Amino acid sequence: MRNYSDNFRARMNVIGNSSRKRAYNRVQRNFKEFFSDPLNKEDCIIDGIPAQAVFQDQSQSNNKDLSDDKYVIVPNSTKIGVGSYIEWRNSYWLVFTEEVKTIPTHQQVKIKHVNRTLKWLVDKDKKTICNNGKGWGAYVQNQTLYTLGVSFSGEHLPLANAKMSVYIKDTPETRAIKVGTRIFIAGQVYKVEFADYVSRVGLINWLLDENTKNPDKDNYQLEIADYYGPNGDSDNKTEHVFFESESAVNEKEWFIEGEKRVRLGRSYVLKAKRADGKDIDVDEWTIGSLEDIPLYVLEKDKNSFSFRVKDDYRFVGNVVTITAKSNDEYKNIPIKVIKKFG
């Protein structure tokens, strides 16, 4: 039979054997009470598994063009993360950011509406379409506003050169997409020029250039590029291998040099550099961001890109990607906006 002290310790272990544990349990109970039956709690499917989640509208004061982003709140027991697909109200959403809670009583993520479904062949001989024929949902953003929107053949002939930024779930199938792959988006064909697997873990970001449709290769009805015949430039061609010295290869390597964490109200300069420290000529600089662009472009030329971060606290935490193109090769640098001081 238990004595009084044993009973007391057993009760304290239930509510928490320290003031810190009791405070955490109290916050945990508060969340459970909140999550029990709020008006914005609805059924949904997360990565194919039925679930319940609380959906909250994003504040209009910090919402570019009233885009339909949402916050989703779920218990810790729910499996969800960056790159997860959520089916809610007969539409699909993609998880873009996952908040790291200082008091981990629940999970909160930010989602964007899947505005395009992209399809390509994973087996050209069998005409097998990716994701078991369904294609992959993606968030597609037009980047032409941040570029000239044209390229030039020779010195005088301007050609349409719209750019698209695609965010898609990081899977073995999406990882298999290589630079040079042609993809249909809204009836037009684009060519993958750059793939970023690093800036937002769980998602892949492609930068695409507008390409020409080809009725001999592209299936317009299914919106799948390179559906017929040889697969672009890579098939039925002899591959020539050239051996170069290590120093020659290193001389061709280049990168964007500059700060990756920038403070509000301050100015910065990015430069394109070779591995040996020499400047490299850039054909084009491009800005990409999921939110409102948090910087002003001061100057850009063939060697450098200078900008000033907007002095607005609402931009803290935003990530912008600066991409440089040189001789049809792309490099990028992800830049995160941090507080002005501290």
List keywords for this structure.
mainly beta; six-stranded antiparallel β-barrel; six-stranded antiparallel beta sheet; 4 helices
Descriptive account of the structure:
By secondary structure, the chain is mostly beta strands. 12% of the residues lie in helices and 42% in strands. The protein has four helices and 24 strands. The protein has helices at residues 4-15, 19-36, 172-175, 246-252; strands at residues 41-46, 49-57, 70-74, 85-88, 91-99, 107-113, 116-118, 121-123, 128-129, 136-142, 150-153, 157-160, 163-169, 182-185, 188-196, 203-210, 254-257, 261-263, 267-274, 284-289, 295-300, 304-309, 319-326, 329-338. The strands form six sheets. Strands 1-2-3-6-5-4 form a six-stranded antiparallel barrel. Strands 7-10-13-16-15-14 form a six-stranded antiparallel beta sheet, with no helix packed on it. A four-stranded antiparallel beta sheet has the order 17-19-22-21. A hairpin with a 2-residue loop joins strand 23 (319-326) and strand 24. The longest helix is centred in the N-terminal third of the chain and has 18 residues, at 19-36. The N and C termini lie far apart (58 Å). Residues 147-159 and 232-249 have low confidence and may be disordered.
